[in-house]
């Protein structure tokens, strides 16, 4: 591929939950300008988001979401960046990159600006190896390979569905950790990409995340957060846990590590604590639930897996809090809306997963 | 701890399978001299290994092994570096560091010599987190922590039994990969330590390895390799798979990543191919075996786990090759010899694991 043609130019959308910061797009211009942007405004629809000249974009506010989804719009969060998943649904591209507006271009240890999108694409285009751990990390990287003792039959790998990037400067801590370590900054650049092993859950952060929409998009639902909901800041976590058990079931991979972005601003820990505190309790039941989920053999598509997961959430987590009953219903609504906007032809790839 | 007093000076032995290279100990002198060395000579007992002045060491050759273990000496490999595990057995210390004589001191990206032993001790002394993946890697390192979404109940972690270090320069490749990529060198310094998740197997390399003898020593058996055996170069792999399933069962952790050593010399790929080729086939049955091993609740000590594992190896792998029948017997002999040399008092810690 010639470097003049950006990778996957016509196959990738960049989804941004909202843009409060005018510098954000200017900083990313060299890397983002060739791609199409989908901006999902998370608050008051009467406010205007200014997008600088030269960007190709579409913008959705709450009125648009209500108009497009009708009564099904109730599965999309309001006044919370979780609304970004509406962008995943309306995209018609194979790949999605999503990033927060307080994430800037990071530099690597040799001082070069990191093209995060390029690294995500590389991660997504090469296989994952979830069945056995490679001690030299990503075996497909230049200068690396599978080490002695790695079974040859497992070296082909499986398709990569998700690429989870990391953050320099402000780490993605929960409110209690933010309160205890207000000055901690992440300065360690770990030059690694690795597959999260099968059967292992991880905290998926939505700040700097790419995925293959055909392979896993229908499970990338960011739940019910924000306005009228009892929790926040678990949108990406919820999506991550759902995606991980579905990827494990369907034989797909999730990578984490490079690329880094520069996370510029810590969110307010007091506000975060209010949003998170129920999640901190509930999580203690949610994790064992996801660790023990078994999806039936008949669940051969992401949609079927997700509907089954919604059923199990309703059965097993509603006793933790009535919120999960509502969430399970919203999960079903999400799939209905997804299928409506992505009719058979468009989502055929899911059936092949 | 004052830097003048080396960490764990009286609690750690360094086990070296043989020393063919006079520079080896000189290079490591600043780091190793304060510790006791156990050298296990892997070949002709009539040859003499010269140990430079100033090192505190004991040396065992085949005659010593035969004298000390009597008929049980048949569980210790001959003419193969797998014999090093005899050193684990005769040690009376809580921690072991083992290193090959072609591994030199590496430098980190800022040009500092890496004290590998110090990093291993740090790895062993801080808990592991095998139940959930932390995307910022080792949460207990300076400047890092658990990220948002990591369940609080899992943050205490479990005791760390094994610290697996890596190699710059010559990577630990199998013979086929060596043949295909003779010039590949590992130049990527990945500044990370991480816990291998529960349920995930990995290829444990014995080149640069430390462990807690009380917690896992009795499972650190390097099998039957070398003289009179059909395979080689699977000694450390075998130990790694056994240790991993036992650690998972007993709630212990295994870390991999830092520290790096500089691996100076590629072994001969043609010789390696001869040693490895049966292992390359057998591995395809061995890995599914270890992935599905279930140890009974009553197996509450490393020894009990290991005896149970030997039983299952005999039952399930002997059909792959009669070698495994012999290996299973040797595993039992190993435990008998271990218990003889490490009577109740000394190995009480195993019972507490």
UniProtKB/TrEMBL annotation, chains A, B:
UniProt main location, coarse: Golgi
EC number: 5.4.99.30
A GO CC annotation given for this chain: cytosol
GO terms for MF: glycosyltransferase activity; UDP-arabinopyranose mutase activity
GO biological process: cell wall organization; plant-type cell wall organization or biogenesis; UDP-L-arabinose metabolic process
InterPro entries hit by this protein: Nucleotide-diphossugar_trans, RGP, RGP_fam
Protein name listed in UniProt: UDP-arabinopyranose mutase
Organism: Glycine soja (Wild soybean)
Source taxonomy: Eukaryota, Viridiplantae, Streptophyta, Embryophyta, Tracheophyta
């Amino acid at each position: 591929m010639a470097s003049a043609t950006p990778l996957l130019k016509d196959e990738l959308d960049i989804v941004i939950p909202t843009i409060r910061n005018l510098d954000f797009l200017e900083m990313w211009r060299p890397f983002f300008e060739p791609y199409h942007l989908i901006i999902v405004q998370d608050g008051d629809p009467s406010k205007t988001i200014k997008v600088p000249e030269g960007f190709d974009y579409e913008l959705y506010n709450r009125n648009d979401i209500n108009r497009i989804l009708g009564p099904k719009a109730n599965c999309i969060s309001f006044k919370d960046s979780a609304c970004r998943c509406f962008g995943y649904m309306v995209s018609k591209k194979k790949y999605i990159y999503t990033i927060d507006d307080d994430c800037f271009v990071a530099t690597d240890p040799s001082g070069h600006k990191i093209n995060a999108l390029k690294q995500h694409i590389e991660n997504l285009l090469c296989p994952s190896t979830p069945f056995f751990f490679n001690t030299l990390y990503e075996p497909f990287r230049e200068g690396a390979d599978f080490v002695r003792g790695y079974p040859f039959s497992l070296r082909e790998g499986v398709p990569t569905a998700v690429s989870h990037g990391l953050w320099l400067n402000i780490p993605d801590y929960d409110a209690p950790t933010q309160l205890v370590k207000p000055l901690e900054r992440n300065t360690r650049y770990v030059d690694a990409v690795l597959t999260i092993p099968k059967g292992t859950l991880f905290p998926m952060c939505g700040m700097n995340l790419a995925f293959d929409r055909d392979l896993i998009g229908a499970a990338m639902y960011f739940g019910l957060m924000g306005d009228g909901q009892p929790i926040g800041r678990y949108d990406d976590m919820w999506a991550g846990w759902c995606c991980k058990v579905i990827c494990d079931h369907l034989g797909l991979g999730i990578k984490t590590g490079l690329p880094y972005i520069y996370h510029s601003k810590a969110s307010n820990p007091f506000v975060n604590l209010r949003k998170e505190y129920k999640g901190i309790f509930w999580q203690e039941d949610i994790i064992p639930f996801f660790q023990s989920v078994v999806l039936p053999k008949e669940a051969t598509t992401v949609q079927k897996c997700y509907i089954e997961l919604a059923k199990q959430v309703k059965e097993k987590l509603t006793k933790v809090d009535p919120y999960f009953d509502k969430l399970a219903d919203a999960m079903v609504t999400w799939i209905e809306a997804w299928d409506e906007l992505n009719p058979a032809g468009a989502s055929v790839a899911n059936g092949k997963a």
